[in-house]
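Issue: ligand-bound run for DQA - logging full I/O for the record.

Environment: standard queue, default settings, no custom constraints.

Inputs:
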Amino acid sequence: MPSVLILNGPNLNLLGQRQPEVYGRATLADIESSCTSHAATCGLDVSCLQSNHEGDLIDAVHSAKGVHSGLIINAGAYTHTSIALMDAVASVELPMVEVHLSNIHAREPFRHVSYLSKVAVGQICGFGPQGYLMALDAMAERLMPS
Ligand code: DQA
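Outputs:
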């Protein structure tokens, strides 16, 4: 079964308590558990990892090569700043879907720029936790076209 690595970046460990008016009430554990259930219905395995550290996220992307078939990444604020994370994704040549809970294009101008989008198959934003499930659907379609 193809396997997908779901990476969450800084401050996403605080989901549920962090600005619920922006990010909702679901915790990261809730999201990861619904991803695991949904992935099974799509014929995918998932592994989930969250880190507040840019280098750890980069290491996780490097380690995904040869182990996972695709990446789903919500890089939090590193989305808007990290050329290094963008380069890591480009280096491993795995399909990556970018996810954001909030609609970053309807927020502050500094959130409108995403380095990760340049190396993403596509970006899903504004749908809250459902965006991760949409990303899994997109990944299943890409990895196992009917
Ligand atoms: C976010 C949007 C980012 O701008 C922000 O820094 C986050 C979360 C989202 O999921 O909406 O930490 O990636």
